[in-house]
Amino acid sequence: MNAMTKITPKSKSEIKPTAVVVGAGFGGIALAIRLQVMGFQTTLLDNRDKPGGRAYVYEIDGYKFDGGPTVITDPDCLKELFQLAGKSMYDYVTLLPVDPFYRLQWEDGDVLDYAASQEELEAQIADKNPDDVVGYRRFLDYSKELYREGYEKLGTTAFLHISQMLAAAPQLVRLRADRSVYTQVSKFVKNEKIRQLLSFQSLLVGGNPFATSAIYALIHALERKGGVWFAKGGTGALVEGLVSLFKDIGGQVQLNSEVTDIHTAGDRVTGVTIEGGQTLPADLVASNADVVHTYSKLLRGHKRGQSYGKSLAKKRHSMSLFVIYFGLNTTHPDMKHHIILFGQRYKELIAEIFGKGGELPDDFSLYLHAPCVTDPDMAPEGKSAYYVLAPVPHLGHVDIDWDEVGPVYTQKILDYLEEHAIPNLNRDVDVLHTLTPFGFRDIMNAHHGSAFSVEPILTQSAWFRPHNRDDVIGNMYITGAGTHPGAGVPGVVGAAKATAGVIADDFRAQLKG
């Protein structure tokens, strides 16, 4: 603790316990809503001028650019947050269906539309390899079983004790969670492009398909069950709806509030200090910030923060991202909303992105987001908004000066898009903004500029992942991508539910008044 700052814990006689949540990303907002509903007077803090975290919105000359997550795959987990507060999600936000879910496109000109219709999807699989249709159906059954075991049963369970992991182990072994997503997919289908169709989704939660536990193959069943959606007004409109709900039920939000310290007395947190000197006492603190930053920086005054921060920094972390947000002074209504552009290499490229000590690959695979296909209001009339992201190595793996490399890499990607996806792109560019790994590091306090926190390999999942409640500091909690179950909107909303469940148990007597 800073010797100049001392925070006195709230009196036990207080009727309403207080909670501070650090970080207003989806995970932090979801936890703050749950805590407020449970009976905590909750304050949600964020260092930026808008809530959203990775889902921050950039507004430039009438364009709206969603900063990060754009794919909503489990609307029920969001509806539940509103229902807890006695509200309807549809009074706050409108979700629009996206179909096809994604368009997959290869350099040889081959295209596959990952359609909502099962019949249409299987017809396209048959076009690639008729023998793979039966294999795909077997994979879908496998994915559904993973979904039941890994998402429905375990996705919102906080793994605080090794016994919980041991109890889950037989099912995980039976479902071959020790194998990679790609390895398991390859058991069912033979065509390489179908294998890519069924394995690339792990990249959307920061996982290498060739190393990430096969448990993440449940994402396919999640998509088939819940569909793919986009919030009218952008993902930022969903953030606004959730924050409005939080405020409507009495929660408090403070933006432009960089937390510099989480204070402790013994093995209990007592509150936080915000840059500028403001202190907020609290009966509990929950961090949605990067887990390494939380322990190494915010809890540096406690020996637990010092030791565990060093341990977390040594773990394997997910890749970073290079993102270009651009607006065009024309429209392309025939495009698809989500487009995956595969380069010539798949396994080799991913190995370089996740590998240590290499260089920035010369080639890339890209995700192109074209929201105006679904919601034209994301851009001024007659214009269209986009973002394109390229997975790149994090800063701990490859030492790149992105201030120097960024402009060259930007033009290389735009030229590629012009050749393969958007004719006359360079001619039609109206606005341009980039986010590099330096931004993830400096703005979002992400260790090594990692975009998805701790990499989701088996030995860093469930009990092996940072716990939803700290093992030493009894009223210090973690939510978001760095804890169980992991990254992605359903993942961090699930983490909030798991963390809230632990808090409810810990504070049951106090909440009963």
Task: Give a description of the structure.
The chain is α/β, with parallel strands linked by helices and 513 residues long. It has 3 domains: 18-96 and 231-314 and 456-511, FAD/NAD(P)-binding domain, CATH 3.50.50.60; 127-227; 320-442, 2-Layer Sandwich (Guanine Nucleotide Dissociation Inhibitor, domain 2), CATH 3.30.519. It is 36% helix and 18% strand. The strands form 5 sheets. Strands 7-6-15-16-17-14-18 form a 7-stranded mixed sheet. Strands 9-2-1-13-19 form a 5-stranded parallel sheet, covered by helices on one side. The longest helix has 22 residues, at 132-153. The protein starts with 17 loop residues before the first strand and ends with a helix.
Short recap of the structure:
This protein is of the alpha/beta class.
List the helices and strands and how they pair.
Layout: E1 18-22, H1 26-38, E2 41-45, E3 57-60, E4 63-66, H2 75-84, E5 95-97, E6 102-106, E7 111-114, H3 118-128, H4 132-153, H5 162-174, H6 181-188, H7 192-199, H8 218-226, E8 229-231, H9 235-248, E9 252-254, E10 259-265, E11 268-274, E12 279-281, E13 284-287, H10 291-298, H11 303-313, E14 320-328, E15 338-342, H12 347-354, E16 366-369, E17 384-392, H13 402-420, H14 425-428, E18 429-435, H15 437-442, E19 476-478, H16 489-506, H17 508-511
Parallel strand pairs: 1-2, 1-13, 2-9, 6-15, 13-19
Antiparallel strand pairs: 3-4, 5-8, 6-7, 10-11, 11-12, 14-17, 14-18, 15-16, 16-17
